């Protein structure tokens, strides 16, 4: 439960700040039909960099939680499904995940799960 609570509060907060700060032409940016819409003139490069820095801290926490494990609770569980979706969304927002090796390996293992592989193929 701690991973789901952490992701829904801390990780999503930083990701949401990034999403609302990105230029509207960026993948993952909040668009005008969203309740979270922020006009382009209120978006700033400083806000983007701060959100990315906060996300880097969060991703290092996740990376540490995966140290020596295939999945967050050792065996694949709902928490992996939940966080994989969030980290996948973050990955669409020009956030370089490649240096976070435990997270990269975990994302790969999650994507190889039969139901997720089927979803991604279709």
Characteristics of this structure?
mainly alpha; 122 residues; globular; Glutathione S-transferase Yfyf (Class Pi), Chain A, domain 2
Task: Describe this protein's structure.
This protein has 122 residues and is an all-alpha fold. It has one domain (2-121): Up-down Bundle (Glutathione S-transferase Yfyf (Class Pi), Chain A, domain 2). The protein has five helices and no strands. The chain has helices at 2-21, 45-65, 78-91, 101-111, 114-121. Helix 1 runs antiparallel to helix 2 (45-65). The chain starts with a helix and ends with a helix.
CATH class: Mainly Alpha
Low-confidence stretches: none
- CATH architecture identity: Up-down Bundle
CATH fold field value = Glutathione S-transferase Yfyf (Class Pi), Chain A, domain 2
What gross morphology would you assign?
A: globular
Element pattern in H and E: HHHHH
Number of helical segments with 4 or more residues: 5
Terminal-residue CA separation: 30 Å
> Helix content range of the residues, please?
55-70%
**Radius of gyration from the alpha-carbon trace, in angstroms:** 15 Å
**What is the domain tally?**
1
Major sheet: size, sense and barrel closure? none
What is the residue-averaged pLDDT? Answer: 90
Which band does the percent of strand residues land in? Answer: under 5%
Total strands? 0
Give me the secondary-structure category: mainly alpha
